[in-house]
Amino acid sequence: MLTPETLQPVIAAAHATWLRRLRTLVECESPTENPSAVNAAMDLAAAWAAELGARIIRHAEPEWGDVVELWFDAPAAEGRKPLMLLGHLDTVWPDGTLAAMPWREAPDDAGRMRLWGPGVLDMKAGVVMALEAVAAVKAAAGALPRPVVLLLNPDEEVGSDVSRAHTERIAQGCEAVFVLEPAQGLPGSADNAAYKTARKGVGQYRLEVTGVASHAGVDFDRGHSAVLELARLLTQVAAFTDLPSGLTVNPGVIGGGTRSNVVAAEAWAEVDVRIARAADAERVDALFHGLRVADPACSLRVTGGINRPPMERGEGTVRLFEQARALAASLGLDLHEAATGGGSDGNFTAGLGIPTLDGMGAVGEGAHAAHESLLLEDLLPRTVLLAAMIAAM
Length: 393
Hints:
Blueprint: H1 4-26, H2 35-51, E1 55-59, E2 67-72, E3 83-88, E4 104-107, E5 113-116, H3 120-141, E6 148-153, H4 164-171, E7 176-179, E8 195-199, E9 201-210, E10 214-215, H5 226-238, E11 248-256, E12 262-263, E13 266-275, H6 280-289, E14 299-308, H7 315-330, E15 337-340, H8 346-351, E16 356-357, E17 364-365, E18 373-375, H9 376-392
Parallel strand pairs: 3-6, 3-7, 7-16, 8-15
Antiparallel strand pairs: 1-2, 2-6, 4-5, 5-18, 9-13, 9-14, 10-12, 11-13, 17-18
């Protein structure tokens, strides 16, 4: 079996090339809402994978960019289930962000060298790390121990409505899933750049209230305010939060009415829901659909639901983490595990019962923020660890 010690010089020798490729990928802006831009980033990753002998399958999705499967075969491993490496190449950053957030290599306030730029942490570095790790295992061993598929999705940042079916279809035939999202926290923090062994499930609900409009000065009594009715409902919704069980409910966006002198005929709210346990999904749905208006002249419409099941800390995931922790120790890394309230495409694979280990990408901070960056010194050892995990499968 390949060890981290044997993989490290192989990766170190090629690391500068992959860093240049990371810059190329970051400077290829790929906001989710621009399919051609996302596909340009997919083209880059596919071209690099082709150099490693990958079979490339692309699923065109007119509304979004392509879903791309990059398959690396293992001819001597007939009958062994594939390993899935899971990532995405869409970002939250609109076109033109590079002008204000250019790629740069510069120290932070603590003197630690960082790489900065839109999408560098979430999660273009993870995609480059995956390709670099596969290349290293193939170079060091001559072949992979089992087939590997790197799945790149174009719509993760907006819920993965299109790519979810592809993710679940492929994952059902895989031995395990490694998710290349960023690690949790910085070195020295409470989470200490941890791998993620649990994630909350994510849901979105929309409340739409219809009332009766009237002139607020002339016909006030004839009106039935949708705004007031929504306000009453939101106090009930806020009470759904149950912190001991990990359930949080956040009415994050509201709107309604037309003018201050009109009793509002319409009002709406969008509500974020997070659950730690799959068993809570039905309970939450029943709570939302059990809401009732107090004013019989008003009506309520509830839509939405849980769109990402929770990634619960199952036995298969724990086994993967313990294996990673042992390999990390040989590199001098004290690997921690953590749970997070954020979701990823790993929620879908874990929801199917496939052992899933998340947060195996870069170490940094500022995802979705102007200070998005990764720690350069951690990039090489984390890539070595990823390669060692692939080799150990």
